[in-house]
Write a structure and sequence with these properties.
Structural class: mainly beta
CATH superfamily: F0F1 ATP synthase delta/epsilon subunit, N-terminal
CATH class: Mainly Beta
Number of strands: 8
Order of helices and strands: EEEEEEEE
Low-confidence stretches: none
Distance between the termini: 25 Å
Length: about 80
């Protein structure tokens, strides 16, 4: 599936991933390939994602995630670097 993580200032990540875990407002959740359509608010925390080679994480300060047709778009309020 294709993951995009963007903030109002910049694109943080774009690429193919096998799985992604998000800090949902009601608890963390994981998205895998062919996941059902979903829109969820996100709280401050880590987005963890992995591809065939490695695992990554990005710390965000809230936002929204949309999952549709193996495309995952995160509109983060900000990232902590």
């Amino acid at each position: 599936m294709h993951l995009y993580i963007v903030t109002p200032e910049k694109k943080v990540f774009e690429g193919e991933v096998l799985a992604a875990t998000f800090p949902g407002s009601d608890g963390s959740f994981q998205v895998l390939n062919n996941h059902a359509p979903l829109v969820s608010s996100l709280k401050d925390g880590l987005i963890e994602y992995r591809d065939k080679k490695d695992e990554y994480e990005t710390e965000i300060t809230g936002g929204v995630v949309e999952v549709l047709n193996n495309k995952v778009i995160v509109l983060a309020e900000g990232v902590i670097e």
